[in-house]
Here is the input.
Amino acid sequence: MTLDRRTAVKWVLAAGAAAQLPDFTVAATVGGSPSGYGKDPDLLKRYAAGDLWPLTLDEPQRRTTRALCDVIIPADEHSPAASAVAAHLFIDEWVSAPYADCKRDRDTIVPGLDWMDQEARRRYGREFASAGAEQMSRLCDDIADVAKAKPEHAAPAAFFKRFRELTAIGYYTTPIGMKDLRYVGNEPLVAFNGAPAEVLKRLGLDA
Here is the structure.
């Protein structure tokens, strides 16, 4: 794909992903009556994938998820690829969760993953995860822009847009992803000397 995902795109991905975080409500309405999601998890316990709810994706969909995450955020000289920080596992957990926003994403992501494999088999005679890097990129180029996608690619383009956002959420909320963004929040400081002069100048507050 003809874009530098690690410099020009990562800020857009991260900012867009933050805006896409769901509103987790305490209860959902099922059949007209409130219905909760069960007991709160033990925040001191380390849960494995699938411990809190059954996972949705099957093995071919998981392979496609992993491969597509790495097309979107590949490794570079500074940071690893998305799958190295388990962004693909995050997406499987996300679309498996019982929350309303996650259920809506499931209806987009699962058919989209199946389409990626079907289209890769049609074009290249193999599933997406087994295609070459250039083949993967060419397929993604066709669905990378919702506004410019062909009519027959409207649904896949919508899928790819949301998948990119989820990949960014999964990646840039990890310690490695935050380091890649040079995010320095949540770290103790001996002293705070105010905003850097460069930032103040950019905001017109250096007078």
Q: What stands out?
A: The two ends are 43 Å apart (CA to CA). The chain has one domain: 10-19+55-202. The mean pLDDT is 84.
